[in-house]
């Protein structure tokens, strides 16, 4: 109750201040009058009575002041006054204020922007019902790690495991939509009907799937994502019940998902290089008999309340063990369960944390500069503070005044930072590599604002600490002396400043050191021989719908005709066909059973694994893939033959010549395939992931599970794009053409993450360097100014300007050298943390570190040199005269 | 005899006690205090008014402008229910403290 009263009265006082002042005045006046009246009653004359009464009362003004300061909430008034004063000072010193505010806004804004990204991507729980119970179930194979889930295992889990409320199987199932605008390839997923209820998602229009739609035959139902409903079907409100043609088959639209629903990209949910973007359409997963033997799926499940992940995993493993007993020759599978969110965001964690660490370092460096500025300013203001002390301000008041001074600027800087963050987020999102998930959820929201408030307050306190300490130590007598008008910093403060500059330099060394390692890794990656020539080459992806291109012959015919047509396009020097171009990040793996080893007791895991590509003979020439041994197949080859890459030759027949050797593919167990040629390795996954053991088969013999045409042109490849598209449309207008990309572009894209990291860190490091240089410059300038008199005396006593210069420069050397020495172990530590990101360079690699340290040393020395030179120009007469 | 200083913290107690009998204005309180303490305690406005304002802010007193007997305008202070409770507490605490001190002085 008391608190409520206090609060109410504080508000009342603020709101009706004038009236309250008048009241107080009247009340005291009445007191005086009554005291005088009493005296007059005792016989004193009216004038004398009044005079005595006033004397008795003591100082009316003082009483009023004591009432004012004694009441609750008086500090608010004082604080408000301090803030107004700070703002006035701010306007009066535009140079100082601008530097401080801009630095703060940049530092805080950048931190807020990065935090928003990290919050959206890593921290915020996914927007599903009870996301902490959602998990992904992985199968593991000894020696291979995680492998895609098999349909048979999934059905067994669903039947037998009791730890889960629901389980759902997912498959990537791209579809070609026809009959509604241009034919287009869309990302789609086949999912168990239990998926949407498990995520807590209801359809916005219509409904999601019913359990019986899992049955083959009843599965031709589709749920549209909101985006595709708007772009492809014009947000038609009567879409439910309409029939659409997917892969040349009719599907009934049963519903549309809500706009706010987000599902991760399929490649984040699947393992082993299965690719896929965010699903745009959804169909029920009717597991066919053939699919029961396949394992290229993913399983998501919801744990029952109270069941731990370990319990779930144990149960899933037990089911796998039971299945293994029934099929003793099959490889032993293990199980792993991890939270869904962990699966989706886990891989981005390192990149983002790295960026955050760097930006925090930059903020610290900036804070050090600002703190230095404030400290110097407080030295200049010590005279004013002494006057305040003399007028009765307590130590607490002086401290509060100083802190509010810095806090006001910090808050304004923080506000500027929020605006800056809001403005820069779209850029940041566009810059970030596409592999970072959930980027569309990034926004400056409440949590980000809370974060901004936190770092603004912390920054304000950190920056204001030293000046406040100084204010508390105000010596009134010394401060009032006239000579103290140009007051100096105490030794403590000077040490603090030097320490700050040293820390700045150390942080900069760490930042640039890390940047150097990342740049080195990027350069190393660029230098990797991709195995093919990427200049003047295009890759055109097309999709062949299983409806009209159901047979191998149909596909092969299309490919042949298209190749012929494309060769005729002017400017084209060479055309090739491949199912998936290099650097696609996808591997289409198949196990090889070498001739003679069919009966051997080798488990599947130990047999050679190959990435299977179906190509035409011209492909190798188009991409410049070098033939190392044997020869390529020609267009009329009917025998089952293959061309393999060096890595595969080494793996399958180490030490022997691979030409003439034969093997069977588990995917096509009938015929023995003969190796007729060995070619150079190509990077199929990523540049830094090592060469892929690749198997090239003639496309007319099978494996056309995707289609890409590689086109080499004489001049600028983009000039031929239109003609190439036309060539394909001429053959079959209904074939959707995916992207037409240059191989150069594909190479750059595969480097996107590395480029992002290296660029960002270098930019931050450069900013930190600039700020540190300013810091060194500031400290040295001030030192020279302060020691002007001492230097003047030395000069007068016979010191040469050169010796003075040497003295000052040795000071700079100590400062900078100390910083660099401190920063080197910091940089090495940063390198150790980054270990997984590095390629071809270790954290102790001294080249990058030496280069960045040298650069920092140079810049800092120059920054300190300039003011040191001023020492030589000191006129001893002038400095000695100033008293 | 020299004037005694009012022990810290007891000014509130005395103000509340005085106002428990009847509402008074500031001057009246200072006069009553002098009389009741046999002229030992004289409190000047510099100490009295800050206490009065504080007690009012805490909701222990309620103030209103009224006319005095001499038709002057003065601000009268009155005890609230909360103030009465506070008075009881303070009084009880004072009794315990003074009893304890007296016991020590007599027993030592």
Given the C-alpha coordinates, what overall shape of chain B results? Answer: globular
The major β-sheet of chain B equals:
3 strands, antiparallel
| Number of DSSP helical runs of chain B | 4
* Oligomeric assembly: heterodimer
Query: What share of the residues of chain B does DSSP label as strand, in percent?
Result: 5-15%
Mean pLDDT metric of chain B: 86
Radius of gyration of chain B: 15 Å
Helix/strand structural class of chain B = alpha+beta
Which H/E pattern describes the elements of chain B? HEHHEEH
- Percent helix among the residues of chain B? 55-70%
Number of strands of chain B: 3
Q: Residue ranges of chain A: pLDDT <50 for 5 or more in a row?
A: none
Rounded mean pLDDT of chain A is: 84
**Most extensive chain contact?**
A-B, 30 and 24 residues
Kindly name the structural category of chain A.
alpha+beta
How many runs of DSSP E, i.e. beta strands of chain A? Answer: 24
Features:
heterodimer, A: 883 residues, alpha+beta, 13-stranded mixed beta sheet, six-stranded mixed β-barrel, 24 strands, 15% strand, elongated, B: 108 residues, three-stranded antiparallel beta sheet, 4 helices, 58% helix
């Amino acid at each position: 109750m008391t608190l409520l009263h206090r609060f109410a009265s504080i508000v009342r006082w603020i709101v009706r201040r004038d009236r309250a002042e008048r009241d107080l005045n009247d009340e005291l006046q009445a007191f005086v009058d009554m005291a005088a009246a009493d005296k007059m009653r005792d016989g004193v004359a009216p004038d004398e009575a009044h005079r005595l009464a006033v004397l008795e009362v003591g100082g009316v003004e003082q009483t009023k002041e004591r009432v004012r300061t004694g009441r609750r909430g008086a500090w608010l008034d004082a604080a408000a006054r301090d803030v107004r004063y700070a703002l006035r000072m701010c306007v009066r010193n535009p140079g100082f204020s601008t530097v401080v505010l801009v630095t703060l806004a940049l530092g805080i804004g950048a931190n807020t922007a990065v935090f928003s990204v990290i919050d959206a991507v890593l921290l915020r729980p996914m927007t599903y019902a009870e996301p902490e119970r959602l998990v992904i179930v992985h199968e593991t194979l000894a020696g291979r790690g995680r492998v895609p889930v098999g349909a048979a295992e999934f059905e067994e889990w669903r039947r037998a495991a009791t730890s889960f409320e629901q389980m759902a199987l997912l498959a990537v199932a791209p579809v070609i939509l026809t009959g509604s605008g241009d034919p287009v390839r869309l990302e789609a997923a086949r999912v168990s009907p239990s998926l949407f209820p498990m995520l807590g998602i209801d359809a916005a229009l219509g409904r999601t799937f019913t359990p019986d739609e899992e049955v083959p035959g009843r599965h031709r139902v589709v749920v549209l994502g909101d985006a595709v409903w708007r772009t492809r079907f014009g947000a038609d409100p009567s879409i439910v019940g309409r029939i659409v043609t997917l892969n040349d088959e009719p599907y009934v639209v049963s519903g549309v998902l809500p706009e706010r629903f987000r599902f991760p990209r399929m490649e984040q949910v699947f393992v082993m290089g299965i690719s896929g973007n965010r699903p745009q359409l959804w169909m029920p997963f009717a597991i066919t008999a053939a699919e029961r033997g396949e394992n290229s799926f993913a399983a998501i499940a919801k744990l029952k309340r109270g069941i731990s992940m370990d319990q779930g995993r144990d149960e899933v493993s037990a089911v796998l063990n039971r299945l293994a007993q029934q099929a003793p020759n099959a490889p032993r599978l293990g199980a792993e369960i991890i939270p869904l969110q962990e699966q989706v965001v886990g891989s981005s964690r390192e990149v983002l944390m790295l960026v955050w660490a760097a930006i925090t370092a930059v903020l610290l460096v900036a804070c050090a500069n600002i703190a230095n500025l404030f400290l110097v300013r407080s030295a200049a203001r010590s005279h004013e503070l002494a006057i305040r002390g003399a007028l009765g301000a307590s130590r607490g008041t002086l401290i509060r005044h100083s802190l509010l001074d810095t806090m006001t600027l910090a808050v304004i800087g923080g506000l500027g930072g929020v605006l800056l963050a809001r403005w820069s987020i779209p850029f940041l999102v566009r810059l970030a590599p596409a592999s970072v998930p959930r980027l569309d959820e990034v926004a400056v929201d409440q949590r980000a604002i809370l974060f901004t408030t936190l770092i603004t307050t912390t920054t304000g306190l950190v920056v204001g600490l030293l000046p406040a300490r100084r204010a508390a130590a105000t010596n009134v007598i010394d401060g009032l002396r006239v000579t103290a008008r140009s007051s100096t910093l105490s030794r403590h403060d000077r040490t603090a400043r030097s320490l700050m500059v040293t820390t700045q330099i150390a942080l900069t060394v760490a930042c640039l050191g890390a940047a150097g390692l990342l740049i080195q890794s990027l350069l190393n990656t660029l230098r990797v021989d991709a195995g093919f020539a990427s200049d003047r080459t295009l890759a055109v992806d097309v999709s062949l719908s299983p409806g009209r291109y159901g047979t191998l012959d149909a596909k092969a015919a299309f490919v042949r005709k298209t190749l012929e047509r494309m060769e005729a396009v002017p400017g084209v020097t060479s055309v090739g066909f491949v199912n998936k171009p290099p650097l696609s990040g996808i591997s289409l793996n198949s196990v090889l059973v070498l001739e003679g080893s069919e009966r051997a007791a080798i488990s599947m895991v130990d047999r050679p694994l190959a990435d299977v590509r179906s190509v035409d003979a011209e492909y190798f020439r188009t991409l410049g893939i070098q033939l190392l041994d044997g020869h390529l197949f020609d267009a009329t080859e009917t025998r089952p033959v293959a061309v393999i890459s060096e890595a595969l030759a080494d793996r399958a027949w180490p030490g022997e010549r691979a030409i003439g050797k034969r093997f069977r593919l588990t995917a096509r167990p009938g015929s023995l395939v003969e190796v007729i040629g060995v070619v150079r390795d190509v990077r199929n996954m990523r540049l830094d992931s090592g060469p892929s053991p690749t198997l090239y088969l003639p496309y007319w013999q099978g494996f056309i599970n995707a289609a890409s045409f590689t086109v080499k042109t004489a001049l600028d490849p983009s000039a031929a794009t239109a003609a190439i598209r036309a060539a394909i449309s001429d053959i079959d207008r209904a074939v959707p053409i995916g992207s037409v990309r240059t191989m150069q572009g594909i190479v750059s894209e595969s480097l996107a993450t590395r480029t992002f990291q290296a660029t960002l860190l270098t930019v931050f490091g450069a900013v930190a360097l600039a700020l540190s240089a300013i810091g060194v410059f500031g400290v040295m300038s001030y030192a020279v100014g302060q020691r002007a008199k001492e230097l003047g005396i030395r000069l007068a006593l016979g010191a040469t300007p050169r010796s003075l210069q040497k003295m000052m420069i040795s000071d700079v050397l100590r400062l900078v050298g100390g910083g660099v020495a401190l920063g080197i172990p910091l940089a090495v530590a940063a390198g150790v943390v980054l270990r997984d990101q590095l390629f071809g360079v270790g954290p102790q690699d001294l080249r990058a570190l030496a280069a960045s340290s040298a650069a920092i040393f140079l810049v800092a020395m120059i920054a300190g040199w300039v003011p040191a030179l001023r020492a030589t120009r000191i006129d001893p007469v002038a400095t000695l005269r100033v008293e | 005899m020299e004037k005694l200083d009012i022990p810290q913290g007891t000014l509130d107690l005395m103000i509340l006690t005085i106002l428990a009998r009847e509402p008074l204005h500031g001057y009246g309180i200072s006069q009553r205090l002098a009389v009741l303490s046999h002229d030992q305690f004289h409190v000047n406005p510099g100490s009295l008014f800050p206490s009065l304002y504080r007690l009012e802010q805490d909701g222990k007193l309620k103030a209103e402008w009224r006319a005095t007997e001499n038709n002057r305008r003065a601000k009268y202070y009155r005890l609230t229910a909360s103030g009465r409770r506070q008075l009881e507490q303070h009084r009880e605490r004072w009794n315990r403290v003074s009893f304890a001190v007296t016991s020590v002085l007599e027993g030592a």
